[in-house]
Structures are given as structure tokens and as C-alpha cells.
Predict the 3D structure of the following.
Amino acid sequence: MNSAVASPRGTGTRNTRILGILTIASMAFLALLGLVFSAEDRDQGSSVRIMYVHVPSIWVAYIAFGMTAACSAIYLSSRNRSLIWDRFAGAAGEIGVLFVAVSLVTGSLWGRLSWGTYWVWDARLTSTAFLFITYLGYLAVRRLGGTHRQRARRSAVLALLAILEIPLVHFSVRLWRSLHQEATVATGGTDVHMDGLMLFSLFFGLISFTLLFLWLVIHRQRSLALEDAMENRGLDAAIEARREEAVS
Amino acid sequence: MEDASFIIGSWVLTFVAIGAYAAFVIRRGRELSRNATSEEMPWT
């Protein structure tokens, strides 16, 4: 059998397909938990159901931006400076931007139900919007011209600066007077005032969205690798054409 | 009833945004892999 025909096309493998099926199944179960099985909150009423997508979205954004910074640090500190770290950083940054956007929009819808307004210039909301804009800038910097190594170096430096915003966003509700509620679960103590099924739904959401993040980042890193390969090929062809022109 | 539209809207918006991005990632990978060699796709 021809090896080119036998090899699967695209960025998927058997393992990513298994991960994808697990992710879809867990998302479907999360929807059941969040929209059907879990109870209404004593204070928030049914609007608490938005939390099961809102909290995991910002969780994934934190993981994604953390990964962007970690991969950037590895790229800058490693001796061989493998571009795979840069591509993982870029893929995670892109996914992080998507999930911050989702978190901002779902939070805004929740705010309309709970506070009576879609937006207030509150410390948490404003710092999250600033985080979103910063990482949009990071993605824009990745698209500036230059070689892949130039792209990797400048975006890695920016990623290491941008990650400093995460503690600012997370602790903004404690540092400043904020309309946004403080952490309900990640309080640092063991005293969590939350119904068992609600807590389970929230944690299940975090796990489901983390699986989704892993699936997305693997596929996106591979498609970025293919983009780089195609660009290299185009550059090689252009150099070859110039050489032929010079000889003739 | 107004609550329901906001809640369902949040969930639909989340899944549509993620689904659209996932579809973009998969389609982009498939497009690029058509002309790629095995060396350029070490995961295969």
C-alpha cells in the first residue's frame, strides 16, 4: 500500500480523535448538568447556569496564557530554540483570546440578569477587557513580517510581559472595590458554601473545557507547523528562481 | 422567561464560537496538509 495514501490527512491522529470524542461527550453531559440537573441558586436563581460556561471559559484562558508564557520562556531559554515551542505559544494564545471573549460575553449576559446592566467599568471587568486587548496585540505581533525566528523571539518577550496581567485580573476583586463577586470555590480554605451537584457541575465544566483546550491546541499547533512549512517552501522556491535568473 | 433567553443564549453563543473555531482549525489543517510531505507532518 502506498504510504502517502495510508497516512491520515489533516492534523488529526487516532489519539486526537479519541480526545475529540471524549470532549464532545463531556460537553454534552455538561450541558445536561448545567441546564437540566443542577438546581437554581438561592441568590442568583437560574442565572447561575451561565456560570457553568463562564467560569470554565476564563479558566481555559488562564491556562492558555500560562502555556503561552511557559512555552515562550522555554523557547528563549533553550539552546536549540525549537520553533515547536513558539507554535505551541501561538496556538495557546489564540485559543486564550477566544475564551476570554466568550467569558466577557457570557459574563456580560449574566451581569444583565444579576446587576441589571451588561457592563460596568468595574476592576474585574475592565482588567479582563484589558487582558483581551493585550493578547489581541500579541496575536498581531505574531503576524508582523520577518523570519520565523524573529517572530518567535519578539512574541516570546511580549508573552512574558503579558502574563503579568493574570494576577492583576484574578486578584482585582480583592485589590479594589468591585461589583464582581469574590472567588466562591478557590478561596484558599476548605469552607465552600455550594450545593454538591452545583460544585460537581462546575468542576466537570473545568475538566470538559480543559479537554477541549488540549484538543484545540494540539490541532492548532500542527496547522501552524504546516503554515510555517508552506512559507519555507515558498521562500525556497523564490530563492531558487532568483538563482536561476542570476545564472541565465 | 427573560432569564431563559439569556441562559440559553450564553450556552449557544459559547458552543457556536468554540465550534466555529474548531471547524476553522480542522479545515485549515486539511487544506495545508494536501500539499504537505510526510516530513512536514511528523504526527502521521
